[in-house]
Amino acid sequence: MRRRAAVASILASAGVILAGVQVGAAVTAARTPTATGTGSGSSNGGSTSGTGTSSGTSSGSTGSTGSTGAAKDGTFNGTTVQTPFGPMQVAAVISGGKLTDVKVLQRTNQGGRSIQISNQADPMLRNEVLQAQSANVSTIGGATYTSEGYLQSLQAALDQAGFAG
Amino acid sequence: MTIQNASRPAVSPSSAGQPSPQVRFRRRSAISDLLVVIAWVSGPVAASLYLASGGLADVKDLGSFFTALGIVTGLIGTDFILLMLVLAARVPVIDRAVGHDRAIGLHRQLGKPALYLILAHAGLLLIGYGASSGINPIAEIGPMLALPDMITAVVGTALLIAVVVTSLVAVRRKFPYEFWHVIHLLSYAAVLFALPHQLSIGGTLAEGTVQRVYWIGLYVVAIGAIVIFRFGVPLFRSWAHDIRVQQVEWIAPDVASIHLTGRDLRALGAGGGQFVIWRFWTAGTWWHSHPISLSALPTDRHARITVRVLGRGTRRLTTVKPGTRVSFAGPYGIFTDAARTSPKLAIVAAGIGITPARALLEGSQLARGEATVLVRSSTDDETFLWTEMRKLAEARGAQLFAMVGPRARNSWMSQHDASRGVTLRSIFPDLDRSDLYVCGPQAWAEAVVADARAAGLPEHQIHLESFEL
């Protein structure tokens, strides 16, 4: 009788774990388009706001039209991107046709740990995108969701400014 | 062998139509197996829910791998701790299926693994978080403690360490029972202290997730079981049955029967052979509870327990005055008719072990010749309750053997009987078709069980109730 319990426990455990892996794979697959949407967004200069799970509206502010180059100068708010750890939103500051600063308007806030991650990752991401003059940089290890949200929101802001790098 | 009764017709069974021992055994072991499976699979379920939420996809480098591993060890460790609470809660369905002893046995086994998992959880997350931030695990301690609810979690872990360490056999022996008990009560605090950080940090149990619902459910079940069965039911029953001491009766130089009166005691449904955890409300005894077997089936107004004086605690019990209020938890245990698996019944009892044996015989539905009883003692002083046992055996149509005399070397029998070739099989010719119930001092009872195993009796036909002496 005890062997019956042991066999049933092992089989049930294996089944439960397999089911978990299967569901996990499906959940991950459903989540992926959000991340890739960011990358494709950079190729077309149009204002494609709100891909995948991103929500909110992008609104330009204090835009002074008509300086040199294709991009408008000013501060442009990106879309608010929902991550599993809360909303992420940045604003791009463009001056003289160059990306000169990125300001974080909302950062992931669910759980103390994600605030810590965000605090660490934001300056690193800022450095990278200012250097690359693009939102097309790799994500920070250990801060995947924060990075994806950051870059996706930034891309929306750049699109709005007509900034193509 | 001094007493041998002629078999008489058995008393008519009061609950005719009760299924046979074999049928009851199959039902009980099905429930027991189901409980075992639920217990073990709860760990994988914890891991599976994490995987189902996309946990694997978060693993991108070594740091996030350690973080994921740290989360899973924390989840399974917590699952073990909640399981331990349920096992210690004296839930009726668990007690009836596997017995209080085995439930507490598993509870003890889980203690160390649970602690190791929780410590691994802390260590792995220090490594994982540290790697993500590019600092070593020691340097990560500062930022880690800055997280919300982290201080309470650390306090909870410290309490958990204290609880497990004081429960190690070697350590536990060095302290009085009360010290261990008070420390052990801190495990409730440990569980509650650890709870907030699980809900607030990391987002694994973030609001709106299936995992959050599942885990809150587990907490409700575990804490609910403790609140209801450890506190609620005993308090209510103690109040409703209003048990008081009627009289203390000495029946041997250091053995006393305590007669109790109460209301509607039959409604407790005590099976013969069960024990009850008693608390006598006098100045010297209220702070210590005693598990003591019923030495007779309760009637509506009367119950009786029999206790051997072993130390100060039990000595004080025998001085309680008539009218003393008594609270209790129970009855518990499956040293009863309910644990039967086979057509015949064999009972071996010695010393104070006679108490549950007597109640077991009294509470069993028996056909004529179904039961055989052996009572054993080294001296004539130890033959208390034997007269009652003989009368019961007569009434139940059971055979009774008595074995008196100093114990033989390497045997649980008397020198006289061991030397003339008496064996378990010669006493119980139907041993293979019998349930063997053994109760007496621990070392002696274990010798009987070892003898039964050597005789080839399967484990499920052996029922042991030992008394620490």
Characterization of the model:
The complex is a heterodimer of chains A (165) and B (469). Chain A has 165 residues and is an alpha+beta fold. In chain A, 48% of the residues lie in helices and 19% in strands. Chain A folds into two domains: 120 residues, no CATH class; 31 residues, no CATH class. Chain B is elongated. In chain B, 50% of the residues lie in helices and 17% in strands. In chain B, strands 1-2-5-4-3-6 form a six-stranded antiparallel β-barrel. Chain B contains 15 helices and eleven strands. Chain B starts with 20 loop residues before the first helix and ends with a strand. The chains are: A alpha+beta (165), B alpha/beta (469). Chains A and B meet through helix 1 and helix 2 of A and helix 1, helix 2 and helix 4 of B.
Shape estimate of chain A: elongated
pLDDT < 50 stretches of chain A: 33-68
Task: Provide the residue-averaged pLDDT of chain B.
Answer: 87
User: How large, in whole angstroms, is the Cα Rg of chain B?
Assistant: 26 Å
Please list the strands of the largest sheet of chain B in the order they lie side by side.
Answer: 1-2-5-4-3-6
How many domains would you count in the coordinates of chain A? 2
Output the structural class of chain A: alpha+beta
Q: Name the largest protein-protein interface in this structure.
A: A-B, 33 and 44 residues
As a percent range, the share of helical residues of chain A equals 40-55%
Major sheet of chain B = 6 strands, antiparallel, barrel
The percent range for strand residues of chain A is: 15-25%
- Report the end-to-end length of chain A measured between terminal Cα atoms: 71 Å
What is the count of β-strands of chain A? 5
Q: What number is the mean pLDDT of chain A?
A: 72
- In whole angstroms, how far apart are the ends of chain B? 26 Å
Summarize the biggest pleated sheet of chain A.
5 strands, antiparallel
Helix content of chain B: 40-55%
User: H/E series of chain B, N to C?
Assistant: HHHHHHHHHEEEEEHEEHEHEHHEHE
Q: How many beta-strand elements of chain B?
A: 11
